[in-house]
Design goal:
Helices cover 50% and strands 13% of the residues. It is an alpha/beta fold. The protein is globular.
C-alpha cells in the first residue's frame, strides 16, 4: 500500500517542521512538500500532486481559504483533499472552508495520533470534523435562520431521511441500521445525495442538512 502523500502549508517554519516530524513518525505517511503561504501552496500542490494538503488559514501572501478554493476548483488536481488546520475556531472560517470543498477542519491543539488518523481518514475519501468543530456547526445552525429549504425539493422522502442521518453524523452502517437498509444501500443513497445536491463530500452534506432546516441542533 502506497503511503499517503501530504503537503504542509503554514507561514511558520517551526510549525511546518513540527508537523512534518509528527506525520512522518507513521510509516504510511510522507510529507512531499511545504509552503509558507497560499500562493506557494498552490504551486507546490500542482508540482507534487499530493493526496492531501494540511492548510493553515491566516498567512501573508495569500490566505489558506483562497488557496483551498483554487486547489479544489482545479480539475487537474482532482483527488487532492484539503484539511484546514488552524488555531482559529471561528465559525466564519469553518463554513468558508467547508463551502470551499475542504474535507476536514481541525484545530492545532489536535493530539498527534488524532492528526495522523485524520490524514488517513480524509485520504481514504471520507470527511472529518473534530468534535469541537462539529459542536460549532450545531451552535451556528442554532443561531442562523433556515437558509434554503427549497434546496431539498428534488429529494425523495427516503433521501431526506438519509440526509438527516448524515446530518446527525452517522456512518453508513449506522444509517443502514436506523433505516433498515444494508450499509451498501445506505452508501448508494449518500452517493446519490452528493450528486443531487452538488456536494463535494459528507461534510458539505452536514452543512446542507442544517442550513436547510432538515436537522436542528439537539436532534439525532
Amino acid at each position: 500500500m502506497n503511503p499517503v502523500r501530504v503537503v504542509v502549508v503554514d507561514d511558520q517554519h517551526l510549525v511546518r517542521t513540527g508537523l512534518r516530524a509528527l506525520l512522518e513518525r507513521a510509516p504510511d505517511i510522507v510529507v512531499v512538500g511545504e509552503a509558507g503561504d497560499g500562493v506557494g501552496a498552490v504551486a507546490v500542490v500542482r508540482e507534487q500532486r499530493p493526496d492531501l494538503v494540511l492548510m493553515d488559514v491566516r498567512m501573508p501572501g495569500g490566505d489558506g481559504l483562497a488557496a483551498s478554493r483554487r486547489i479544489l476548483a482545479d480539475p487537474t488536481l482532482a483527488g487532492v483533499q484539503v484539511v484546514v488546520l488552524t488555531t482559529f475556531d471561528d465559525d466564519e472560517y469553518l463554513f468558508e472552508a467547508i463551502r470551499a470543498g475542504a474535507a476536514g477542519f481541525l484545530l492545532k491543539d489536535t493530539p498527534p495520533d488524532a492528526l495522523r488518523d485524520a490524514v488517513r481518514v480524509v485520504a481514504g475519501g471520507d470527511a472529518l470534523l473534530s468534535p469541537a468543530v462539529t459542536r460549532r456547526v450545531l451552535a451556528a445552525a442554532a443561531r442562523s435562520p433556515v437558509a434554503d429549504p427549497a434546496r431539498l425539493a428534488g429529494l425523495t422522502a427516503r433521501e431526506r431521511d438519509v440526509l438527516a442521518q448524515v446530518g446527525a453524523g452517522r456512518s453508513n452502517a449506522e444509517i443502514g441500521a436506523a433505516l433498515f437498509l444494508s450499509p451498501d444501500t445506505a452508501r448508494t443513497y449518500v452517493s446519490r445525495l452528493l450528486q443531487k445536491l452538488t456536494a463535494r463530500d459528507r461534510a458539505q452534506l452536514v452543512v446542507i442538512a442544517y442550513e436547510s432546516g432538515l436537522v436542528r441542533p439537539g436532534e439525532g
